Input
Amino acid sequence: MFELRARDGLARIGVLKTKHGRISTPTILPVVNPHFMPISPNEMLRMGAQVIITNSYIIYKDEKLKEKALKNGLHSLISFNKPIMTDSGSFQMYIYGSIDVDAIEIVKFQNEIKSDIGTILDVFLEGKYEEMKKGVIETIERARESVKYKGDMLLATTVQGGTYKDLRRRCSRELAKIDADLYPIGGVVPLMEKQRYADLVEIIITSKRELPPSKPVHLFGAGHPMVFPIAALLGCDLFDSSAYIKYAKDDRLIFPDGTAHLNELEELPCSCEICSKYDINELKEMEREERIKKIAYHNLWQIFNEIKRVRQAIREGTIWELAERKAIAHPSLIEAMAILRKYKKWLEKWENISRKRAFMYTGSNSIHRPIVYRLNKRIMERYTTFFKNSVVINEARKPYSRNKRLTELEANCIVKSPMGAIPLELDEIYPVAQSLFPKFIDSDTRNYARKIFKKFYESLKGNENEKEYDIRKIISVADYQFGKGAGQALFKGKIEIIKSKKTGKIRNVISNGEHVVSMRAHDGFFTLKMKGAIRLHSHFSFPKMRIVVKDDAIPFIRDGKNLFAKFVIDCDDGLRPYDEAIIVSKNDELIAVGQTIMNRDEMLSFNRGMAVKIREALKTK
Ligand code: GUN
Ligand code: ZN
Output
């Protein structure tokens, strides 16, 4: 039901199929109250809404609405012919302490009124550990029972557990075993109201780590654009907003970085249809009802503007930059960004090999991105020196190797960069060459880079394996990209390096007459040719670099078709999105070479969508 279309780490562009059409994620669902619709759902479509959310409990409790909904369906009741998600009454339970509806009855009801996405009656409460634990156990039980009644409706099973990590973990782990279609993270409204974003981030990560990556995650009650980038960055696909109307009732206007009361403003810093049509004084003097409608419209417009910006950032690979920039909107968001540092190792698993756009420094958080963690880790673990002696070079113009004097030095050249220690041979890989730092960087980054540099430099062991620069470069890039020893395995005997006449950059490498790899100009990494794959396949033992496929898929792959996730049996846990990978049969027989779209967890979780883009298949004898 959910398919991956593009990604930037955990953040993804996905498509969710419902009975009333497809939803492109990340997106936000405006909350529609069936009793009060100052903006019609059809008008919301024009602003960018693809799906709305309404409350089945409100309908259930109102005899007239209930009858109509049961007779003609929810879509007719709301006059909306696109996807509708329904909530269950959990939020009312949280507000009023209790509600009188049965957990299974409300799921059946959502199905009967033909909701596209229904929600279980999860137990949303604020309380001490023991109380919360009971709520989690009850939520899991209700989810297990509810799936039996979902029919052709998609079912959302909400993760609860407050700020208790073990409860969140337990709840997510148990819900992941259930055949649900969507996993909301619930119980976070009180945190967002108090702007406790650091706690919010801990909860998202704790839940996300246990939930199946193939299912969309909804952040329940997240309706302010301030949280969209960081939540999307952590893999949240859906948001919902009643904030647009709630705030409007208080004369509060939503902006990308915060909220402003109408009375605080002397002009309207926005150019939505409302703000470009009305003067601020006209707005202030309007009848209350009319004003609420106008402000609600503006608020929704701002919200959709931000969600579009998030989607664009994911497509172009700049979600980290967007989240870091957004973080300075509130000190508590700065705290939340800092929390991510603790989870670098996990975040790195989802991180693309490279991006279309350059790595942009935004401040002291940037050095803690998972791509920098990977860079330093791989250099530390995979780089091998060529000379006995080493010299330190201060950061210079990039790429460093353009300086011929450096490439001709008979010593290991280690560049002191804002990202740590960069061996001269690795100066063209992503994100080294494709990064932008200001001349003067903050002292946190400087100290961090200095620490990394020192650790690497002190660990350096000299070698006596002198080679000319280009040979050193291809060996070092291969080791960095595929693993230690890959360079020796790939480049044997007579080596010919073919360079671009225009740029002078390495394009192809021929070893003993076989074209083994090409070097990509945009990220400085190799694409693996079949001749290269054969060498790495025999050099590295199973499961390194491998993706094991079902026998049924083999003829299709040999025919040049791409590999879909449902045909993957297993996969090397070291493979990352956009890595070069070797496709093998159950007996480790080499079938093809290609580029991954997913990591292992995703390949094993998704039943739909492409896992590997096949480049070349081995011709059978
Ligand atoms: N709306 C806001 N928060 C929640 C929640 O935790 N559960 C449900 N079902 N709806 C919500
Ligand atoms: Zn506006």
